């Protein structure tokens, strides 16, 4: 019997534990259900506990402060209501048969110091909420509350979650856009909104939603689950991150904030504003919440990229430098968010609610690219006008109903759409040619580049066979003739026009229902089902329409090539220096480039006809488009057994059936006989791929309360990850705009990745709002998917081909520790200090087959995108209305790209990254607070390297940004 089957049998056994109690329950004393809500002077208290005195009966409030306590014996009882940092309250009640709605229960803070910090708006209240939710949860989770998010310098959802234990983020030009748990590959973490996976328009094909479109102001809570329960979606090996959007408050609320800032790279201003309104009407039955946010900022980045000659057959020359790319982004980003929530409470046990969401992220940027093409002795200049739009739109309706004193039902229906498009329109009347325009200019060197090694190749100094080479951040042309071969707009001629087409649309329609039945005072049973219909379409791998001048194609009597100097140009945005972080050595190559209007005109029919441009789009271009439908039907059964007052055991099994159909097309070139002559013919063939499978996922959790302040948790869970849409279709996309040329292929034979996960965690809660937690985890993973990269050199052109494959099983183990501690035991001023520290260490191992002659060698490496070390460190000060936080975030190095052909010596790695941010706020009054935020104090670059840290592949700097503002809680 397999381990999964044994765990399934164990889960079924756990469910049967309650049956004898069920029989006895029917003969027991009459029992009833209590419902109510728990608050303090400032709002609801999520996860506060309610216990019936002198019994083991208890319940925890939900995120809205509401609780339902079943199986309470009829008659006089006393309730004990507890919340970390608050006085335990005893509430006498007279329990009557049926459902008993109680008046709102009000708690007060423990001691004047705690009450003061809550009123003054420091982090204490947020930490109390998060700790209570974590302590009372059955699953292994961490929580971040909205008032904590508002006190950190984080403007989108990904940046907010990066502070949590074991969570790491990916940064895109200085802003976090994706998150992962325990340093695992980003695709292995699921992103949920209100408990349901969000559709993803990630252009890389990942199912992990991109989060830079979601402003942090619309988020109420973030919940990070590291060991799933059967009622959660099971496709998450690293963990799941659930963003809970705002719902109706218990009290009338209106707050506004406004801030202005500055980006030190672009030397431009930024602004940010938000408004939140909520209230209740009709005797508190109808609740309304509206929130809106805008964040408009200028930004810039310098990116330094080295391409190596990895396609060479000579191992020495595989590390020769083919090209250096100097890239400057100088753009504008706009994030808009609008969230609405409605709730209607029929009574204490029945409510319906609705949420609507509209988020939009505009990324507008001209991009300036300067290449030194050492392999062909050329300069190359690219200018592109980028306008990317990401939108998230959708709504959900749901309800919770106490049907009887033992039966509760909740349901949800949702429809969300995510879309990513390039919104440029070059000067053309053909709507099929909509996309991102790129113009390429080249200048041939008469005497060539200097500083070459004895084999005629360009090297980094430590790689060069004779020691003649450059330092990684000091690669210069070293021209043999500095006068004749200076970069020159009169010699830079237009060689290529490209319209890059990229866009993805994904829509999820979801329905779900859950029923919970209290079998006995100690045992409850929960069952549920979920259906999701997903539609996905678009180009998630780039397709390009390509136009070349006939002169460059060698066609006789062609119009001459157009020099850059004859076109309308504007000044290069120098902004203090081209790569000023390394001393601005490339200011002489900051060439004035064409204007945006001129770029659009290059694509007009009149310009292209007059200058002899011809359409040479690759015949494989149609294969970059695909569309698919995925239907998922999931069901689960789960039991919760309160074995003793300290021991809780719950478990069950989940089954997710996936039915996937993806349609695309494949390309091949065939030799056919046409009019009696052999002719090469391009053939595009429609392709439809099916991928249907069950995922049986048994799960067992044990929670033991060592004492009122300490919990010990253990869990076994089986989870999985679905293959990506784009990875399954046997398409082929060719990107001729990159250097080297890249080819991306799909693989219809991919299998899902499964993992058996083991977790052991402990937590201890200090009296003064503090927490110490730690634990171990282990994962056994099968059918890991990775992107295999092969390199070829033909006709002097390097081509990199990527294709997803399943590799052998992988193992992963690690530990994590976290500490939140306030130094209130120190005298005077020092008592306001405190720390938040968390660290995650993860070791993984996977074998990658590499062909060596007629043999196959097994290379051992860590999982792609998996970091061994993650940590966050926050030093904070809170006293007399002042809150100050210095936060450091570290993500250790990880393998970014694996090559079966080249082996570990030339794997691409993302290097260590440590960013430092600062925030401060001062509460002037109960209504008004001023704040200051500064990001990336140390101007930490994002780096990648090839095999050896000295062999730089990519380095990107984006400098500091900051803002100052005011928040006014009007009521």
From TrEMBL:
Pfam families: CarbopepD_reg_2 (PF13715), Plug (PF07715), TonB_dep_Rec_b-barrel (PF00593). The lineage of its organism: Bacteria, Pseudomonadati, Bacteroidota, Cytophagia, Cytophagales. It comes from Fibrisoma montanum. PANTHER family: PLUG DOMAIN-CONTAINING PROTEIN, TONB-DEPENDENT RECEPTOR-LIKE BETA-BARREL DOMAIN-CONTAINING PROTEIN. Residues 508-937 form the TonB-dependent receptor-like beta-barrel domain. This is TonB-dependent receptor. It comes from the Bacteria. Keywords: Cell outer membrane, Membrane, Receptor, Signal, TonB box. SUPFAM superfamilies: Carboxypeptidase regulatory domain-like (SSF49464), Porins (SSF56935). Belongs to the TonB-dependent receptor family. GO terms for cellular component: cell outer membrane. Residues 1-23 form the signal peptide.
